[in-house]
Amino acid sequence: MNARGQVIFKDIWKKHGEFVALKDVSFEINPGEFFALLGPSGSGKSTTLRILAGLDAPTSGRVLIDGNDVTGVDAADRDVAMVFQSYALYPHMTVAENISFPLEMAKVPKSEIAAAVFDAARKVKIEHLLDRRPGQLSGGQQQRCALARAIVRKARLFLLDEPLSNLDAKLRLETRVELKKLQRSLDVTAVYVTHDQEEAMTLADRMAVFMAGEIQQIGTPAEVFAKPNSIDIAGFIGNPPMNLVNAKYSDGDIILGGQRFKTAVQITGSRDVIAGIRPSAIRIGADGLKSRVDLVEHLGDTAVLDLDIGGALMRVRVGDENVPKEGDTVSISARPQDFHLFDPETRKRLV
Amino acid sequence: MKRLRMVVLFAITAVFLLAWAFPILWSVLNSFKTDRDALAYPPKLLFEPTLDAYRDVLFGSGSIIPNLVSSMIISVGTTIVTMALAIPAAYALARLRFYGKKFTGFYMLATQMLPPVGIIIPYYMVLRNIGWIDTYQGIILIYLSFSLPFAIWLLVSYFEDIPYEMEEAAYLDGASRMRTLWRIIIPQVRGGIAVTVVFVFLNAWNEFLFAVVLSGNTVRPVTIAMFNFVSVEQTLWAKLAAVSVLAMLPVVILGIVAQKHIVKGLTVGAVKGGGRR
Lengths: 351, 277
Fold this sequence. Notes:
By secondary structure, chain A is of the alpha+beta class. Chain A has helices at 45-53, 95-105, 110-123, 139-151, 169-186, 197-203, 221-226, 231-234, and strands spanning 7-16, 19-29, 34-38, 60-65, 68-69, 80-83, 157-161, 189-194, 206-211, 214-219, 243-250, 253-256, 259-262, 271-277, 282-285, 289-298, 302-309, 312-319, 329-334, 340-342. Chain A starts with 6 loop residues before the first strand and ends in a 9-residue tail after the last strand.
């Protein structure tokens, strides 16, 4: 395992005048980890990456890389490579010159540069394009050129700011897989900013979910998916995201639309809650809550139903067999362990 | 209909072109005439061309070669100093946030609005007090006060067109601010720099009003020397035309050389994806 590329973010605040962009952000990234910063736009994930890169300075707090305090260190001296959303290739240089630029700046001997450039280009399969200029490349090739420029110098941190967002859907899926393989084979620490929860889920070893300038949850994608910390995360992760409906809790039961369901959650007393159920966890059967099918979305091997349960919307993912029709009435239920309960006041998860 | 439009367009263009080109053609023609032919009325279109006028103004007693050299020193000096200061200044104005940035931008434009006649006397007094009348440094200093704001103002927009992310990418690649400016930014504003060089050089080369007041016998640019050929008794049209043509040459050559870079600069900026944010 690589011993380089450990990151510690300690109590980072970032304020622009009155506006608070980051509120007390703290996390740790282990060497060799693929770490995603996930969140909707404006949630602070890009600001976090820029502070890590040294492009922005935090208002307060410390950034440590491999145990060294780099809070006041310039971007150029942090030994950190980055792929920008726009790729930020140098248009007046060829692909080879673009890739060799970081090596030149690091004063790598000329004799070693050519081989290193070719090697990096080969890893991202653009070795046949070295003489072209960025303007003569397709979007996907430009993206690869930006990747090559980032990996050519064996930097200790590899930062990616929404690197796939300018690619078309098919290319995005392909590149996503390659990116993961590349990170594994290079054995580098990668920090990946994205607003696409699916990207974060598939790529990341662990992820930090940002909401309104705060980290709401850190964990593996599986952990975050299985136990979202708050209503906001529950409504953000998953496709379609978790259903969230007003319900009552009483003695181990959930009362939802007049129906009682068993739940695995044990809290004392009775209270109002927000109940969350994943669309894929909802069962259609003989018993349960009666609801009308408003809309059916066929997705090929699955379908998503929009159900009306007493005025509230409930989305259900079902297999492609025996899909109910629009206007049908179905009965839905869920297993006790599939209910997630949230406090309507604090919006946090109830144990 | 389309054809008619083309014809009208062509005619209008031809009129403008003729109006613009006539003085130049007239000068070039006259420069190859004898003084007598030049004075002939109606003007002779068919005449025996001669290089007498050129021989006289270049190698005669009142040779204008020292004046051409003088003009060259002033113009090249002004251009070099202007660009050396304007490039970093324009970059700073385009990128950095500092107190008084807005005012600085307004001030630069305001200098271009002042009527030169209004400040020529204060300029004269300043130069006289520091003993720089009729010196190269004096003239260049005065020209700088106009060309520098103009060059900065022109360059700023070129610098602003370069996405800031590209600069950040260079920093992360390990480049210092100066390195980034030199290797990443300046090559991309080549076109803008070429345009600015042409304008600054042109203004300095063609300047007359300040030169006439602030120069003297040591520093005597060609724009002033030209008037040797205009006197109360007579105007030596052929020689005057020959000097005009000679004075035009450096500017024309500069234009042709710069054109390549201007076009190149434009295409670099136009490259798809290359300059986009």
